[in-house]
Give the backbone structure.
Amino acid sequence: MSSKKWGKNRISNELKQRNISDYLIKVGLKEIPEEEYTTTFHELAEKTWHSITEKNVLKKRKNTVTPYSEKVGKAIGCIKK
């Protein structure tokens, strides 16, 4: 099975556009294992970290966290470099 590594908000929005009921979306999102979701998040954050060429660690951390904090909200505590 192909994994697009979408976040829960993206999945929810995509399903709403396809007129899937809120109830079914909630049920479906509960099917996603939290460990798998967290692991994917960390993999994507790690990939972002290594792709940023900034030498200043604080700026690099900010550039890594910003896209995820906008999407996840708890990203700041998840990325520790």
